[in-house]
Amino acid sequence: MTRIAILASAAALFAMPSLAHAGDLSGTVNDSTARPVAGAQVTIPALGLSTITDADGTYRFEGLAAGEHRVAVELAKDERQFAEADVPETGEATRNIFLYSSASLDQARNGINPVEAMLAEALMAQAWDEARRMIAQAETREPLSLPDFTG
After folding, report:
1. What residue segments make up the domains of the chain, in order of their start?
2. Domain 19-99, CATH number (from 3.10.310.70, 3.30.470.20, 3.100.10.20, 2.60.40.10)
């Protein structure tokens, strides 16, 4: 009878699904202008894991279960921005995170697509930079001398 119990236990162990292997997740947190963000808190809320980005905006989690994980970047005013990352059974996944600007988030709260708002913001900044460049260029030129047609 003891032999049957041991054999049944061994068979049950082999029949159990194996646990997912562990993989790593790393990446860079960038602001809305694609600059790395140092000192940002990156979390995986479902697992209770947290890390801080280093000077060049990189973060890393090791030994995660394989599969889809929701990653959060903690922002000021108790706000978070989320991204999804698919961790492999072995090896490393890279998930770079680009943060929306405050203006884009405000637009999103008003029902406007934050990606479109971010693009519009970038285009407006580019237009202002071009206008400043043109004004500076115009100010450095000598005034034009027009011929006198009166006489």
Report:
1. 19-99, 100-140
2. 2.60.40.10
Distance separating alpha carbons of residues 70 and 44, to the nearest angstrom: 6
| Under 8 Å between Cβ of 28 and 97 | yes
pTM: predicted TM-score of the whole model, two decimal places:
0.59
Three-class SS of 80-112:
EEEEEEEECCCCEEECCEECCCHHHHHHHHCCC
CA pair distance 85, 107, nearest whole angstrom: 26
Looking at the chain, how many residues does it have?
151
Rounded distance between C-alpha atoms, residue 50 and residue 36, angstroms = 18
Residue 95 near residue 25, CB atoms below 8 Å: yes
Which amino acid does the sequence have at 88?
P
**Tens-level pLDDT at each residue, the chain (151 residues):** 445 444 444 444 444 444 456 899 999 999 888 899 999 999 999 999 999 999 999 999 999 999 999 999 987 766 788 999 999 988 999 999 998 877 777 777 777 777 777 777 778 778 888 877 887 787 777 776 777 777 6
